[in-house]
């Protein structure tokens, strides 16, 4: 399941302690692919994550706060995934690699984004996309690329 791959990528190598909010994030992401967000309860999320409600409330005030946390984690993963890891000196190659990585990232997360859109979370999805795009643009406007291509903004 795509959520499990995401959790593994974020650094969970085995069963996470009950206090780890990633269990709740994973549960929410899985449930949103099954049912609209508006139909989900904290009890549903805790049952899927196999944690007690007190654990949930130790980390989040409500399910919308958990959703915001999920979006912030996706934004961070997007930026980390989309920017090339290897040193690329050609601005053109760097931008092409970043574009390819970005398209692959959103393709892998497609079902989660569709679930969010179908659950009436359009505004949150657009905010996530906008924030990730802004951070990617910030990273891609590094001075080394401006020096390589003077006059291009």
Report on this model:
It contains nine helices and no strands. Helix 1 (2-9) runs antiparallel to helix 2 and helix 2 (21-32) packs across helix 5 (63-82). Residues 9-18 have low confidence and may be disordered. The protein is mainly α and 153 residues long.
Structural descriptors:
153 residues, mainly alpha, 0% strand
State the share of residues found in helices, binned by percent. 55-70%
Number of strands: 0
End-to-end C-alpha gap: 40 Å
**SS strand fraction:** under 5%
Chain-averaged pLDDT: 78
**Counting H and I runs of at least 4 residues, what is the number of helices?**
9
Spell the H/E element sequence.
HHHHHHHHH
Topology, please?
Elements lengths: L1 H8 L11 H12 L9 H8 L3 H7 L3 H20 L8 H18 L1 H9 L3 H19 L2 H6 L5
Helix pairs in contact: 1-2, 2-3, 2-5, 5-8
Short description:
The chain is mostly helical. It is 70% helix and 0% strand.
